[in-house]
Amino acid sequence: MYLHHVAAYLPATVVANDHFTRLNGLSSDWIIERTGIRERRRAAPGENANTMAIAATEQVLREAPAVPAAAIDLIVGATYTPHDTIVTLAHAVQHALGVADIPVVSISSACSSLLNAVEIVQGYFALGKARRALIITSEHNTAYNNEQDTVAGHLWGDGAAALLLTADKLAETDLRIDEVITAGAATVGKATTAVTLKPLDRDIVMPHGRDVFQYACQYMTQVTEQVLKRHQLTVQDLAYLIPHQANKRISDVVLRNTGLAPERLVSNVERLGNTGCAGAAIGLADTLPRLQPHDRVVVTVFGGGYSYGAMLLTRE
């Protein structure tokens, strides 16, 4: 299975840290010290998880003409901030593309949904039910976020990314998906209460940030080392590591734990905030043009409910 292309969509509105200084007294320096975040994007009125998903899809198709919309035979959508829980972002994308009578699936496993979506595509490909798949990750965090919350209200940003996956190699720049490992760790720590979003409350709450920090560092390190070991590789064999973009301090701990050189860490949390399951995909879109033949990349994720995973990619 191959990753043919990735493209991202970001809303135009930039919200800098001084917005929260004016709103609730949090200094920019304090936010940067604790999270690394300097600014984030906010969807405009009329934008939502579905519209951003469609925009990312249109972008990836413009940039990858080898896979026209009519050739797509599977759509998988991923979000925990849906605009509509019935007409999901995957349905919205299918409608926008006008591609009928193909499987359309939506998934939510918090910020790790990207890799679970890849596993869904693996299953369809393995069963011979699809050969050209579209994965869309899209988060409209600001629709649910309480900016007055001084614990977590300053963390969140909006954005989307679209990935084209194919059963065969279409271009020299394609990345081979060597392996995806995912799991849930809902039995440890405060997994079921540390980060919650109850739609009727319309509020993302993180009462146990220290617990999230501890287990995010632990599991992203562990699963990164696991996927490398299974392929007889070390972290020195990686061109880039792309972690879930939740907090720069978490990424830095994973960097130290694995022994990866700092210049090989991909981070966008400074300018985008936490964009949920779209964050690592946006990072992959930014990294794709820099990859050279034989480069390897690991994407590692961790989400609320304490789901986690890692994916190993190789440019042949």
UniProtKB/TrEMBL annotation:
Residues 228-314 form the Beta-ketoacyl-[acyl-carrier-protein] synthase III C-terminal domain. One of its GO terms (biological process) is fatty acid biosynthetic process. The keyword Transcription regulation does not apply. The keyword Transferase applies. InterPro entries: ACP_syn_III_C, ACP_syn_III_N, Thiolase-like. This is Ketoacyl-ACP synthase III. It comes from Hymenobacter gummosus. Residues 107-171 form the Beta-ketoacyl-[acyl-carrier-protein] synthase III N-terminal domain. GO terms for molecular function: 3-oxoacyl-[acyl-carrier-protein] synthase activity. SUPFAM superfamilies: Thiolase-like. Keywords: Acyltransferase, Transferase. It comes from the Bacteria.
